[in-house]
TrEMBL record:
Family: Belongs to the UPF0065 (bug) family.
Residues of the signal peptide: 1-24
Keyword Nucleus: no
Keywords annotated in UniProt: Signal
Protein's recorded name: ABC transporter substrate-binding protein
SUPFAM superfamilies per record: Periplasmic binding protein-like II
PANTHER family, sorted: BLR1237 PROTEIN (PTHR42928:SF5), TRICARBOXYLATE-BINDING PROTEIN (PTHR42928)
Pfam families reported for this sequence: TctC
Domain of life: Bacteria
Lineage: Bacteria, Pseudomonadati, Pseudomonadota, Betaproteobacteria, Burkholderiales
């Protein structure tokens, strides 16, 4: 009996000694990571996510799997990210529309752009260019503005839809130049570009990834690019400052976030691996050749950047009275 009691005591002691190890959480990551993409497969957002997900999976040691949840101006995907468990296994892309435009255009949203996300890092910028039909008489921005001011409302400019980055860029341009330009909204950039190439509209602010091949083929003509410096892929195109519109910068941007309250070690690990993916020469070259500028940032830098963009674009949107609810 004494022997049996001793064995039971030893077994209980061994079990108790093993409890901390059994209950300890495995190191991150110990399972695949889901990357939410708030747009349909095949678009620019999807391309960026899938390029970087492959590289991050290699350094994280777990697959990073893109999961498309398109719809409602990125609101569906953003809400899914915000409501996910803060464990690092669900992260995703949000963009200028998600964080800087929607809060100013909707009276209520299913996510809070300032409180519902953990900042992980920047992904990329898509510079915007002012393009016209090849037959349009203006050969530069100043001639374009002269025509717009001579016949107010007669010069038209397409966008991919109300409240889109292309529309908001147009409104900022109008506010900077005091030009009366007719906004023509389409359901997406593809039909807008088709009508620009057909001469149905005079102009359009376009982002480079979907339009670069058309620009190089001469199907549309670019007057200026809305970046501080000229781009290597369009070396002959002046910046807006060079073209006589100082202080005008506009681009669509995308960043990687998780739900609020992600543990700091998880954020640090993912930021490190995202930075390595963006620095990979092959990945960087693939992004740059289609007009995407890699945008690495620390979580702190990203937080400051988002706050600055929210302040800028909320002012533009309110001045233009853009409402989507």
């Amino acid at each position: 009996m004494h022997k049996r009691t001793l064995l039971q005591l030893l077994a209980a002691t061994a079990f108790a000694a093993g409890l901390p190890a059994a209950q300890a959480q495995p190191a991150f990551p110990h399972q695949p990571v889901k990357w939410i993409v708030p747009y349909a497969p095949g678009g620019t957002t999807d391309v960026i996510a899938r390029q970087l997900a492959v590289r991050m999976g290699q350094t994280l040691g777990q697959p990073v799997i893109a999961d498309n949840k398109p719809g409602a101006a990125s609101i569906i995907g953003a809400t899914f990210i915000a409501r996910s468990a803060p464990d690092g296994y669900t992260v995703g892309t949000v963009d200028s529309g998600t964080l800087a435009f929607n809060p100013a255009m909707y009276a209520s949203l299913s996510y809070d752009a300032q409180k519902d996300f953990s900042w992980i890092g920047g992904l990329g910028k898509m510079p915007l260019v002012l393009a016209v039909h090849p037959s349009f008489p203006a050969k530069n921005v100043q001639e374009f503005l002269a025509l717009a001011k001579k016949t107010p409302g007669a010069v038209s400019s397409a966008s991919s839809g109300p409240g889109s980055p292309l529309h908001v860029a147009l409104e900022l341009f109008k506010q900077k130049t005091q030009a009366d330009i007719l906004h023509v909204a389409y359901k997406g950039s593809a039909p807008a570009l088709q009508d620009l190439m057909a001469g149905q509209v005079h102009s359009m602010f376009v982002d480079l990834p979907p339009s670069l091949s058309m620009i190089k083929a001469g199907k549309v003509r670019v007057l200026a690019i809305a970046t501080p410096e000229r781009l290597a892929i369009l070396p002959d195109v002046p910046t807006m400052a060079e073209a006589g519109v100082p202080g005008f910068e506009a681009y669509a941007w995308q960043v990687l976030v998780g739900p609020a309250k992600l543990p700091a070690p998880v954020v640090e690990r993912m930021n490190k691996d995202l930075g390595a993916a963006l620095a990979n020469p092959e990945t960087r070259a693939k992004l740059e050749e289609i007009g995407i500028q890699p945008m690495p940032m620390t979580p702190a830098q990203l937080g400051s950047f988002v706050a600055s963009e929210q302040k800028l674009w909320s002012g533009v949107i309110k001045a233009a009275n853009i409402r989507l609810d």
